Amino acid sequence: MSLAGMRLAPxxxxxxxxxxxxxxxxxxxxxxxxxxxxxxxxxxAAAEAVPAPTVAxxxxxxxxSTEPSRLPSFAALVAAGDAVAVLLRGDARLRAAAGDDxxxxxxxxxxxxxxxxxxxxxxxxVACGGAGIxxxxxxxxxxxxxxxGAGFTLVPRGAPAEAGPEPEQEPEPEPExxxEPEPEPEPPxxxEPEPEQEPEPEPEPEPExxxxxxxxxxxxxxxxxxxxxxxxxxxxADATQDLVPVGTxxxxxxxxxxxxxQGLRCIRGHFNHPRARFCALCGISMVQQTQVLVxxxxxxxxxxxxxxxxxxxxxxxxxxxxxxxxDPAVGAGELVALQLDDPDQILSRVHxxxxxxxxxxxxxDRNSANGTFVREEGAEEWRRLASGDPATLAPGMEARVGSHxxxxxxxxxxx
Amino acid sequence: MSRIADYELxxxxxxxxxxxxxxxxPPARLGLDADVVAxxxxxxxxxxxxxxxxxxxxxxxxxxxxxxxxxxxxxxHQDGILFYALEYFPLGSLASPARExxxxxxxxxxxxxxxxxxxxxxVGVAHRDIKPANVMLIEDGGKLSDLGLAQVLNPGQTVxxxxxxxxxxxxxxxxxxxxxxxxASDIWALGATLHKALAGTSVFGDIPTDDVLSALRxxxxxxPRVSPDLDDAARALIESCVAPAPEDRPATAMELAERLEVxxx
Lengths: 415, 265
Fold this sequence. Notes:
The complex is a heterodimer of chains A (415) and B (265).
Chain A: E1 6-11, E2 16-20, E3 23-28, H1 32-47, H2 52-64, E4 73-80, E5 83-89, E6 93-98, E7 101-106, E8 114-118, E9 123-127, E10 145-148, E11 151-156, H3 173-179, H4 209-215, E12 219-220, E13 260-265, E14 271-272, E15 294-297, E16 303-306, E17 311-313, E18 318-321, H5 328-331, E19 336-339, E20 352-357, E21 360-365, E22 373-375, E23 383-384, E24 391-392, E25 398-401, E26 404-409
Parallel strand pairs in A: 18-19
Antiparallel strand pairs in A: 1-11, 2-3, 2-10, 3-4, 4-5, 5-8, 6-7, 6-9, 9-11, 13-14, 13-15, 16-17, 16-26, 18-20, 20-21, 21-24, 22-23, 22-25, 25-26
Helix pairs in contact in A: 1-2
Chain B: E1 3-4, E2 7-15, E3 19-24, E4 37-45, H1 48-63, E5 72-78, E6 81-87, H2 103-122, E7 135-138, E8 141-144, H3 150-153, E9 157-159, H4 173-177, H5 183-199, H6 212-221, H7 232-241, H8 253-264
Antiparallel strand pairs in B: 1-2, 2-3, 3-4, 4-6, 5-6, 7-8
């Protein structure tokens, strides 16, 4: 049973209850501003389908960066495959039941917060702000959005209104365990295929042990073993010393693997876009200069800023997708793989390419199943790119692939 | 998070650019005298390639025996979660000093960090993440801690999106755009760090903190400005560090360290 497949019945109270996709939140007390930040964090995490450990880290970051008195009590649940990552802070409480097996957690047990994975559950109820756990949830289902409340109960969709934690009910106890072991390769969870002598359908003893098991295997770096050696970093030299007229190869000893393009040098020798009016590096005006094109190593052409803040510098071309490393051009070093999270499998393994062509940055859809979209800065409408047809990006333009968005920014091409 | 590998993690010491620091007791296998170490646990899940690059970079760091670099005791991964253990500093860092600092203390601390950076540069490593939180305080100076591993783990990625937005104020704009990190970019970051520690403000003024895109647009389109409240000598030195053209900055971090030490006396 994954979180997304469960019905969320909010419990009454003066806080907020929110849910999007595989993320659910209940918060009460604290500053309204901090509560809003919390809801925003959860909304963003759901929209970007951020993996559960990262959501937990972001929540922890919000906690540690906020004065405790301003923090609400809250419970956040994030789907992690069939498991659910749980983070509780303040007086938030959680009760998860799977048959007779009941797990109870309370944020009040720790001065900072409590976090864990729930691996075995049929119903999960949380309460904060001193409210009691709702054992008889109403029949509502908050599918997505924010409502007022102080907790919620998650039950399998289709289960009767007050199915609650009744052990009799058991919607599907067996398959639950079978699908349980997700990314972790720990053997204890998988006693299933073993034809051993224990047919007891005991559906658990591992919500606690799972984390301990992981602790046993780790690998450390051997600092005593040989390290590669590198030469000292070069000292910055006056750029005017290495002026290269068009058609001449760069000095062999520097032989940078960079791509050569035609451009202008400012009076101090910095290499620029052919239409630059000011040097992109030192800011000096280039208008008065003789506009003689020279060949030089192409500088990075700008950045891609993703919705989660991840920023990529465009010093070369990139291949984006769920598993772009499979493309031979990545192995050959022509493209850098930029693997994107994609829990909902919207992206193709090789989805699109951000290609540097001369001084242009182009976006090319690589025959993706669900398309690559762009829109101009400030525009509402997305435009789907025809596969294989390069679109030149202008600074401020936004692109969308799967659940990811990124904006192209550049300081070049001030024409 | 309460354990990683054989470390029992204690109090959280805050966030870095791509992970979180905890206080921890060192495992017996390290045979350390210290009873407390700082353990950094990275946010990012790593595969074999990432682990290899991470191990290489940290081995190089550990191979540099400089009194101005924080000791790296241990590094490894557990189930794709990368961690490393560093010397712990009870006096804190320039970002959160355990006691009040006089301007001379700040200058000496940054001078120590600059010497640490120089030692790294001499073995071909750029630090990439110099900022007040990575300048650790000792009785009479400072040491440079940690390494920026974002680029090592994710080629091309210059800002991870995990850290606080404000951390970009210590990144040379060229590095944000994808230029390789260099002596000059670390020297830029040392200048920005010194400015923050002395003047209390960023060389970029008020950076919007509501979203990363606005913050990036701000730092990429604003020329660094040194506070007029600083004395002339400190101002001139910081101005040279954050000069747009690398050749206008001190040529090496060692040269910067020496100039800082003169200012501190």
